[in-house]
Write a structure and sequence with these properties.
Strand content: 5-15%
Number of strands: 10
Helix content: 55-70%
Structural class: mainly alpha
Oligomer: single chain
Largest sheet: 5 strands, parallel
Strand order of the largest sheet: 2-3-4-1-5
Length: 886
């Protein structure tokens, strides 16, 4: 995995008759042996004779010990000249054709000199092409150096896998997508080292900590067990260190990274240099300091596990004293000192703990914030520290702990500023913890009764605007936020401004003002970065969430995805649960782009996180989206399973997105089963709900699906109205699609294809072009129909296997009426005539007559043939019987 360039280099080397060797270098565990084996297998497949040898310290003690099994029997090498000639004769005897030997020597740096000299001689004659692996930083003699050198030997040096390569590898091994936090933890812990990654994954699987929920693999929080083999491998690696350097490694395991001066206080400079030479530590420049760190994060895990308690305590206290003696000049020094003293003794000076907690909170290290504040004696806990603690609990998704802590802070609050700060934090936590909007508004109203200043009232008004948008009423929220300062520098309170500035672009995007929304989101993000160290707010990357919504609804999905994925990685690194909403909107963007597989992956990630923190507002949305993706991919069982979970959730009021959008899964599953009328009814009701709450872009999304499922005439006028009220390119394209489907005008449908392709709505483009091809075919223009079909195929190739009724039936049912098409679809997926009649409020005879006409036009005689012709999953086709009588 991820070794394509290296394999290409080997292919070039093996084709070059002047090449004598191919050496693979790299640190332990990066996959040198695996790559070398792949090269050898390719040489064998090409017809070469192949051989293998593994060098070792034991074999190296015996001349020719590593390659003895490859030499002809009976050869006497006491005379090197005669012996070499005998080896050549023995190796060439009976060898068919001109092809040479390809010999793999693993750990070539451990070869004894005699083996190295003989191999070099064989290479120079062209008899063998040597594939060798060598470990970086290992010593080797002159004879082995000769094997590695010269223009006739090519070398590649393997590096660790990138996070993207780790993701591809894990998905291939596990057979499904992996959650981003899990990828982040495995990639960070393994350092991209394939061997370490393997042992971490095996350990997590064995312990039951790495599991799949039916959609995505995720790691239990705080659990990353390895294997005994992993501990042994790392222990062996660490044992190569000079004993004088052991204290440096132990201290780094507890306090990584360290100033170089602190490392050299424990060991002489030459010993520290030796640790770097051995690849156990790294030395780098950090502003004006030179710092030392462990070369791999897992080294610290193994070293800590072997440290006795008192030794650990002494190392930590000594290091804290060194930092204190230097005056703790750097901003993070106090955080380090407090953490070390707390780890060593379980306590520290309360003032130090408080200062350190503030620092931890402002770098978004929420677990450490909690640990530091909880270590404070009760008498030293203030409203401010409880507020910080409650905020940290919120950021980690521990809603109950957050509410209990914030309630205590509220009881202690005396001044207006404290009361305001607590009210803002409590209302946010209530909204996220599934409390109804009315309960959060009641807390805000209670604060209004306690606050007297105009400035305080304005902050609570901003907070109410924030809550109403989160609670699903964007127009109401925007009305309350309309006088929010444009720039953070003009605001009287940074935290209140950030709250309003985060939600304003959400509200604007939801009511169709996407250009303003994008501008606000960009401004809010820049301001948040600027004031982050002084604000009690989530990570600045959360400001990119409304930007993703705004860009996608403006018809700029590629930009939305680029910005969103970058911000999501930041939120994963910060371990902020607010990232669940970024996953929600990334999934929605992929769905709008016509990428159901990728949308399903994002929504599965959001669902796993929402379940872990019991965040029903997000979970209801993403379960609907997951079911919709599964349905258009033909995975109807998965769609039904997801909807079954959806039905177990308690009903909720509108949320950040329209409550109607959560019904996408229900509608698309009905459509996949051929119940187009019922699907349209679900979507129409959902669109009506979105209209009631003012979610204009959500209403447009839902009505577009009504049009795609045969209801274009019913949806076209309202979509045209919405296109006039919503800016950006997406709203007009939706309206044009509905109008073109209504008129069945192929020229207009192809114009819609252009518009949809221009905004990256690939599935809509494919459907429009498919409908155009069908229209041309009906009017007997085969060349134009073929050209439109080719355009549809190009767009559909980007849609990850999506299947929709408009795609699967437009071509094959071009001659059918709308009613014939609907009945044919219902019959194709296994519905009996009486069930179709009941669903459509028709007589059975009328249904059978429509089916007869459809069979005649399509040239089929059974329902099974009908299902095959329409390309629909024939779930439970009742029986293979001829078409019904007229």
């Amino acid at each position: 995995m991820g070794r394509g360039p290296e394999l290409d280099s080997f292919a070039a080397a093996s084709a070059d008759r002047e090449c004598r060797g191919f050496v693979v270098g790299g640190s332990a565990g990066v996959g040198k042996s695996r790559l070398a084996e792949e090269c050898l297998d390719r040489a064998a497949a090409a017809g070469c004779r192949v051989g293998r040898a593994t060098a070792s310290a034991a074999a190296g003690a015996v001349p020719l010990g590593a390659i003895a099994h490859l030499l002809p029997t009976g050869v006497d090498l006491s005379d090197p000249v005669a012996g070499f000639a005998a080896v050549v004769r023995g190796l060439t005897t009976g060898r068919p054709g001109p092809r040479r030997w390809v010999l793999l020597v693993d750990d070539m740096h451990l070869l004894d000199p005699a083996s190295a000299v003989l191999l070099r001689q064989l290479m120079d004659t062209g008899m063998i092409l040597l594939i060798g692996t060598v470990r970086s930083g290992e010593p080797y003699g002159k004879a082995v150096a000769a094997l590695r050198g010269g223009d006739a030997v090519r070398r590649v040096d393997l590096t660790v896998l990138t996070p993207e390569q780790v993701e591809a590898l894990l998905q291939a091994v596990l057979g499904g997508p992996v959650a981003r936090r899990t990828l982040h933890e495995l990639s960070a812990a393994s350092g991209g080292n394939v061997l370490y990654l393997r042992e971490l994954v095996l350990g997590a699987l064995t312990a039951g900590d790495l599991t799949e929920d039916g959609e995505i693999w995720h790691l239990r929080e705080g659990r990353l067990p390895g294997t005994a083999r992993l501990t042994e491998l790392i222990g062996t690696r660490l044992s190569t260190a000079d004993s004088a350097g052991r204290p440096v490694l132990e201290l780094l395991a507890l306090c990584d990274p360290l100033p170089l001066a602190d490392a050299e206080a424990l060991a002489p400079p030459q010993v520290v240099a030796g640790l770097e030479q051995a690849g156990l530590i790294r030395v780098a420049q950090d502003r004006r300091r030179i710092v030392v760190s462990l070369a791999h994060p897992l080294y610290g895990e193994v070293l800590r596990a072997g440290l006795p308690v008192l030794r650990r305590r002494a190392l930590l206290l000594d290091q804290a004293a060194r930092f204190e003696a230097r005056g703790a000049r750097r901003r993070g020094d106090l955080l380090h000192i407090a953490t070390w003293r707390l780890a060593a003794t379980g306590t520290a000076d309360p003032a130090l703990l408080t200062q350190a907690a503030i620092l931890a909170r402002h770098v978004h290290d929420y677990p450490r914030t909690i640990a530091l504040i909880e270590a404070l004696p009760e008498e030293h806990r203030t409203t401010a520290t409880r507020l910080m603690l409650g905020d940290a609990f919120f950021e980690m998704g521990r809603w109950d702990r957050a509410e209990a802590t914030l309630a205590q802070a509220d009881a202690l609050a005396i001044g207006e500023q404290d009361k305001l700060a607590v009210a803002l934090a409590r209302t946010t936590n209530l909204l996220w913890s599934n409390a109804p909007l009315t309960e959060a508004l009641a807390v805000n109203d209670a604060a209004l009764d306690r606050i007297t200043s105009p400035a305080g009232h304005r902050k609570l008004k901003i907070n109410e605007g924030f809550m109403r948008i989160v609670g699903g009423w964007p127009a109401q929220g925007l009305a309350l936020l309309q006088d929010l300062e444009t720039e953070v520098g003009d605001a009287s309170d940074v935290n209140a401004w950030l709250r309003g500035a985060w939600m304003t672009p959400f509200g604007l995007a939801l009511v169709g003002r996407t250009v303003e929304a994008a501008a606000w989101a960009e401004r809010a993000h820049a301001a948040h970065r600027q004031v982050d160290e002084h604000a009690l707010a989530s990570h600045p990357a959360v400001q990119r969430i409304p930007l993703v919504l705004a860009l996608s609804e403006a018809g700029r999905p590629a930009e939305a995805l680029r910005e969103g994925e970058r911000a999501y990685a930041e939120l994963v690194a910060a371990d902020s649960v607010v990232r669940v909403w970024m996953a929600v909107f990334l999934g929605r963007t992929e769905w709008l782009a016509g990428h159901p597989v990728t949308a399903r992956r994002w929504w599965a990630e959001a669902a796993a996180l929402a379940r872990s923190i019991d965040h029903a507002m997000a979970l209801r949305l993403v379960l609907g989206g997951l079911a919709a993706c599964a349905a258009v991919l033909g995975d109807l069982d998965a769609a039904e399973t997801t909807l079954a979970e959806h039905r177990t959730l308690p009903p909720s009021a509108p949320g950040l997105l329209s409550a109607g959008e959560e019904r996408l899964g229900e509608a698309w599953l009905l459509a996949a089963r051929g119940h187009l009328g019922q699907a349209r009814s679900v979507l129409t009701a959902a669109a009506r709900a979105a209209r009631t709450t003012g979610h204009l872009t959500g209403e447009a999304l839902l009505l577009t699906d009504v049009a795609r499922l045969g209801g274009a005439k019913d949806a076209a006028d309202r979509l045209t109205e919405l296109a006039q009220r919503c800016d950006g390119a997406f709203a007009p394209a939706r309206a044009q699609l509905a109008t073109a489907l209504t008129t069945d005008d192929p020229d207009q449908l192809l114009q819609v294809t252009d518009a949809c392709q221009g905004i990256g709505a690939n599935l809509l483009a494919a459907e429009a072009a498919t409908a155009a091809a069908a229209a041309w075919r009906r009017t007997h223009h085969p060349r134009r129909a073929s050209a439109a079909a080719r355009r549809a195929a190009v767009a559909l190739a980007r849609c990850e296997g999506a299947r929709t009724p408009l795609l699967t039936t437009a071509q094959t049912t071009a001659a059918l009426t709308a009613r014939e098409r609907e009945i044919a679809l219902l019959a194709a997926v296994g519905n009996a005539s009486k069930d179709i009649a009941r669903a459509l409020t028709l007589s059975v005879r009328t249904v059978d007559n429509h089916l007869h006409h459809a069979y005649t036009k399509l040239g089929v005689t059974t329902r099974r043939e009908l299902a095959q012709t329409l390309g629909t999953p024939a779930h439970g086709v009742e029986r293979d019987h001829p078409h019904p009588p007229t």
